[in-house]
Amino acid sequence: MRKASDILGMPVLSLEDGKQIGYIMELLFDLDRRRLHALQLGSGGILDRTRLLVADKLKEIGRDVLVIDGPHQVISGREAGSIREGLHSMEKLKQKTVYTKSGNRLGTVQDIVLSGLDIEALELSEGLLYELFHDPIQVPLSGPVVFGEGIMVGDYLQPGSEGKEELETPPGER
Questions:
Q1: Which of 4, 38, 129, 141 has CA atoms 20 to 30 A from the CA of 115?
Q2: Within the chain, which residues score under 70 in pLDDT?
Q3: What is the DSSP letter of 84?
């Protein structure tokens, strides 16, 4: 498993010629499928246009670089715009607050935990002061989840509760 934020900024290399195609500027998620769907590429130029790489086209997500077959897999223009429609950027997801089904606030999305291209969990934060003294909370997305203005998780269980009780105490009050 890896955090989505670890992928941001990584270079993308082509197997075809070994050249760097760009770097990962943004991640785009399909929340209905709970999956990373596309990666937005940047090249560092002032007139950087939108270029996307569909995540299923990745050959490898390595420790240091992402590998694709070749530059022909990069999508731009109108096609890139149509792919972006309906997807949620990492930047927007990090502004969402997560609640339990019983109405308790768990925290704000800080990162997304991936297993391959699938979203396994949301990593939550209660802010910088909280993070100084506590590890971030990882909320698995194995049960029902409602994505809207905030994110509503169905049956979040407190770690170590072995499935017996839903977390009723918000993280900042423990």
A1: 129
A2: 44-48, 154-174
A3: H
In 16-149, DSSP assigns E strands to 20-30, 35-42, 51-54, 60-61, 66-68, 74-76, 88-89, 97-100, 105-115, 118-125, 137-140, 145-147
Supply φ then ψ for residue 92, to 5 degrees.
-70, -40
Q: Please tell me the predicted confidence (pLDDT) of residue 47.
A: 60
153 in Cβ contact with 137 (< 8 Å): no
Count of H helices and E strands in the chain? Answer: 3, 15
Note the pLDDT of residue 19: 94
Distance of CA 124 to the CA centre of its chain: 12
DSSP run (H or E) holding 82: helix 77-84
51 by Cβ neighbours in 10 Å (0-12 / 13-18 / 19+) ranks as buried
Q: Is the dihedral of CA 89, 32, 153, 8 positive or negative?
A: negative
Q: C-alpha distances in angstroms, 81 versus 50, 62, 70?
A: 8, 27, 21
**Quick one: pLDDT at residue 63?**
93
Give, rounded to a whole angstrom, the gap between the first and last alpha carbons of the chain: 27
The upper half-sphere exposure of residue 53, i.e. CA atoms within 13 Å in the direction of its Cβ, equals: 31
Q: What is the pLDDT of residue 165?
A: 41
Instruction: Output the six-digit token pair for 42.
Output: 């940047």
